[in-house]
Specification:
With about 110 residues, this protein is mostly helical. It contains seven helices and no strands.
């Protein structure tokens, strides 16, 4: 198992969330009241956010602080949901690529 520290997970998740909202680093910086350089340092893993900034980011992206720092894979930090996601992850990780594709198709059918 590869170990990622919290900075690695934070930078990956922040970048992903920013890109999902189709924001530039400059636009996110403006929303957070900081410079683009700060956001760039976060995304490169060269700086860590303050507690206040973690709260601001989690509120802005509507995710939990635990999700941002990699303590949870659940956006909202709900312990029941975390348990369910963990169970899905264990099952999914044990599947072949073909089984994963079938599982995804089945989930899409069920969710429609």
């Amino acid at each position: 198992m590869i170990f990622l520290d919290y900075r690695d997970l934070f930078k990956e998740r922040l970048t992903l969330l920013r890109k999902e909202k189709k924001l530039t680093q400059t636009e996110l910086a403006a929303h957070m009241g900081v410079s683009k350089t700060i956001i760039n340092k976060y995304e490169k893993g060269h700086a860590s956010p303050s507690y206040e900034m973690l709260w601001k980011l989690s509120s802005y992206f509507d995710v939990s602080v635990d999700y941002l720092i990699g303590k949870s894979n659940s956006f909202n930090g709900d312990p029941v949901l975390n348990e369910q996601i963990s169970e899905f992850q264990k099952i999914f990780d044990s599947m072949t690529d073909e089984q994963k594709e079938k599982a995804i198709k089945m989930l899409r059918i069920i969710s429609d």
